[in-house]
Amino acid sequence: MEKDNLFKWKHYQPDIILLMVRWYLRYNLSFRDLVEMMEERGLFIAHTTIMRWVHQYGPELDKRIRRYLKQTNDSWRVDETYIKVKGQWMYLYRAVDSDGNTIDFFLSKTRDAKSAKRFLKNALAFSYVARPRVITVDKNPAYPVAIQQLKNEKKMPEGIQIRQVKYLNNIVEQEHRFIKRRVLPMLGFKSFDTATSILSGVEAMHMIKKEQIDLRDQSVQNQKEFIHQLFGLTS
């Protein structure tokens, strides 16, 4: 939690910037909603400015919270959902544990064994992620192929169990609904990079909301202060 130059040359105070970023990523608000809300407070900020802040600080938030996430358990639920980018459907891979804690997520242009393998490999690299004892997936044939390749590379335990049981994946499908509700007011993404940066921030705020950060008091105020500390702001 070190102070850096992320806010250098900005025309607004860092706490105002983080307020806009937090609100956009957590609530069903548009950039123009935030413009109006700030105007009520005497601040006149262009919606494009808020958009640039979200693109910059959303991925940074995701990157900085990873080391503070609680350990997940070894029962994974893996699935993908559809996200529209520039008029085309892309695939958002997501994994949670049996308690609903987010393990990782990955936006891909394709839905195949190569993408599934990359997603699972990335997830395994995080220190807070327990190596899976069992992975529950849907009927997508790409997952068994990807998991076997990771076993061959000694990246996954040989004795891991793969379950293709639809009802056991209800927990991750319910998580998809959260993403869908948040993405709907955005009216689609204009580019793959934009989608990646915004979704990483949305997922990061969702992990904080789900209390995956080890705070003694999980109030919204404490969560806000935690984010400020992540970016080197003092209360």
What does this structure look like?
This protein has 235 residues and is an alpha/beta fold. It folds into 2 domains: 14-68 and 189-230, no CATH class; 75-182, 2-Layer Sandwich (Nucleotidyltransferase, domain 5). Helix content is 46%, strand content 14%. The protein has 8 helices and 5 strands. It has helices at 14-26, 31-39, 47-65, 113-124, 142-152, 170-183, 192-209, 220-230; strands at 75-85, 88-97, 102-108, 134-136, 161-163. The chain has a 5-stranded mixed β-sheet with strand order 3-2-1-4-5, sandwiched between helices. Helix 5 (142-152) links the parallel strand 4 and strand 5 (161-163). Helix 1 (14-26) packs across helix 3. The longest helix is centred in the N-terminal third of the chain and has 19 residues, at 47-65. The mean pLDDT is 90.
